[in-house]
Amino acid sequence: MCGIIGFSGSTDAKNIILDGLKRLEYRGYDSAGIALQNGNVINMVKTSGKVDNLVAMADADTKLAGNCGIGHTRWATHGVPSDVNAHPHMSADGKFAIVHNGIIENHAEIKNKLIQKGVKFLSETDTEVIVQLLDYYYDGDIKKTLVKTTSMLEGSYALGVLCVDNPGTIYAAKVSSPLIIGIGAGENYFASDITAFISHTKNVIDLEDGEFAEISADKITIFDHNFKEIKKEERKITWDVAAAEKSGYEHFMLKEIMEQPAALKATIEPRIKDNKVNFDELNIDIKKYDRILMTACGSAYYAGCVGRDVIEKLCRIHVHTEVASELRYRDPMIDEKTLVIVISQSGETADTIAAIKEAKNKGADVMAIVNVVGSAIAKLADFTIYTWAGPEIAVATTKGYTTQVIVLYMFAVWAAYKLGRIDEKQLLELTKDIKRLPERAQRTLDLNTKVKKLADKYHEKQSIFFIGRYLDYAVCLEGSLKLKEISYIHSEAYAAGELKHGTIALIEEGRLVVAVCCYEPLLDKIISNVQQVKARGAQVLALAVEGNKKIFTEADDVLLVPKANELFMAAVEIIPLQLFAYYVAKNNKCDIDKPKNLAKSVTVE
Ligand code: F6R
């Protein structure tokens, strides 16, 4: 939520920062701003709306120049999206400009104190207290003032600061919000994530909680609250700039859907040794646990629902799932015999982080399945498995979800073997089935044109139901979420057997029901549910496995996906549902990569 960038170099900072903001826009897009330092003056332009609005204003502003500056793209938390609430925020005397990602929880208390001392506030944001504090405490020593100011803050922040008395220098500080530093040649950066400056440098330093950075064109100094310099390791980003660009696709979402076979392969291959799934490097003593608790948010939670069913089936260990935003309120039954598995693409989700803390407080071990290397969740967990999906830019996750599902399959197979629930022969067979999935995903993408036609047919529906049983039901949850978040069409996912207990009242003439019928042991059951909704006038779009002839006599439209091991179908059958959501949204002229009210990483509770 919110993206920040800072740059110091010897070229004009304006375009570099604006370009970085465009790349960060998926983190929030209700307002944006930029401040550049030119000698002893800081000039600022900010506006509500998307980064393109800002670009137009910044281009027209001739005063906005300089080799050093900061930028921000916002997802509003405190204060409506408006010009005045947009960042940067500047002190009244023009001495400081700041950008902030995070939430200052004690902002009201600080604001009241400063108001009593005569300080005037302009915006409704929590962020403004930071710039007012800087100005209030400033005694000519910016580092000292920055440390003092941040010591007053409770909550989370990734902070970028300009101070007129230190031309050519940007300052950064962080607690519980992501911030990464980019090391260029004669120029340096900070940003919320690497996508902001990947076209300039792949060499980075991770700033840790409680650390500060002083960054000029040719020097980066990291220090702690005692001003003690900290030596930091450099890290090289392995993926290429093209991974964070559309590369000819109209939307990132379509590109990321198409990248799934490669992402699955990249996630599977490093975990296979001698044709067997192998997670030995994790050093988890799986026999130690008598239950697993899976927790995450949104799509990551739905990946967990698939994982729950597969782990329970193969490992015969009790697996419970819980949305991370609720976990801590339930005083959950977690102890040192519970393995808590958290799942997160971004590795930043505040609710998931809170769930980890709750689990750890109760003595549990935490295993994280995460896409972003070095992210907060990856660091907090006792064991981390990365999904090698590469950067995911579209707000609606696709390859993030399927790679999470794949890791859960692999973990289930490996754990089942370690627990003695399957023998070596079964381990080899199940590994082979997993290795086939990228090819199955690739063939599923051949449905693209057919799905597009179905989206043309159905895009005007006001409400769409998804029904399925067992593993197919878990996939319905994700298919339905995909549709509603990017097309804004009302949708519900139901365990097909539950329809008759109430929801069938909503089935009427012309209602579209997407029936996921891929778990073949339950085919007859789901077909009878299809007949029930057809009898009430519904139109049925069925998703079934190649070779299924029966379904054609029951459904209005059928999409057939390649056959895989019935336990592992989710990674394949979700793909047409992602494409369906995409093309429905496209027909309805929705902003697919940046759906309204959403942002990619949800760093607020
Ligand atoms: C939906 C979507 C969200 C995320 C959720 C968790 O397409 O992307 O539901 O899955 O916000 O995010 P992460 O995985 O980053 O923790």
Characterize the structure shown.
With about 600 residues, the chain is an alpha/beta fold. The protein has three domains: about 240 residues, Aminohydrolase, N-terminal nucleophile (Ntn) domain (Glutamine Phosphoribosylpyrophosphate, subunit 1, domain 1), CATH 3.60.20; about 190 residues, Rossmann fold (3-Layer(aba) Sandwich); about 160 residues, Rossmann fold (3-Layer(aba) Sandwich), CATH 3.40.50.10490. It contains 18 helices and 26 strands. The strands form five sheets. The chain has an eight-stranded antiparallel β-sheet with strand order 3-2-4-1-10-9-11-14, with helices on one face. A six-stranded antiparallel β-sheet has the order 5-6-7-8-12-13. Strands 18-17-19-20-21 form a five-stranded parallel β-sheet, sandwiched between helices. Helix 7 runs antiparallel to helix 14. The protein is globular. The relative contact order is 0.09. The mean pLDDT is about 95. The site of fructose -6-phosphate has 15 residues, from helix 8 and helix 16.
List the helices and strands and how they pair.
Blueprint (H helix, E strand, L loop, with lengths): L2 E6 L4 H12 L6 E8 L2 E8 L2 H10 L7 E7 L14 E2 L5 E9 L2 H10 L11 H10 L4 H10 L3 E9 L6 E6 L4 E4 L4 E4 L11 E4 L5 E4 L4 E4 L11 E2 L15 H7 L1 H9 L3 E2 L2 E2 L13 E6 L1 H18 L2 E6 H4 L10 E7 L5 H12 L3 E6 L5 H5 L2 E4 L12 H20 L5 H12 L1 H8 L3 H11 L4 E6 L2 H17 L2 E6 L16 E6 L5 H12 L4 E7 L11 E5 L8 H18 L18
Parallel strand pairs: 17-18, 17-19, 19-20, 20-21, 22-23, 22-24, 24-25, 25-26
Antiparallel strand pairs: 1-4, 1-10, 2-3, 2-4, 5-6, 6-7, 7-8, 8-12, 9-10, 9-11, 11-14, 12-13, 15-16
Helix pairs in contact: 1-2, 3-4, 4-5, 7-12, 7-14, 8-12, 8-16, 12-13, 12-18, 14-18, 15-18, 16-18
The structure holds fructose -6-phosphate (F6R).
The site of fructose -6-phosphate has 15 residues, from α8 and α16.
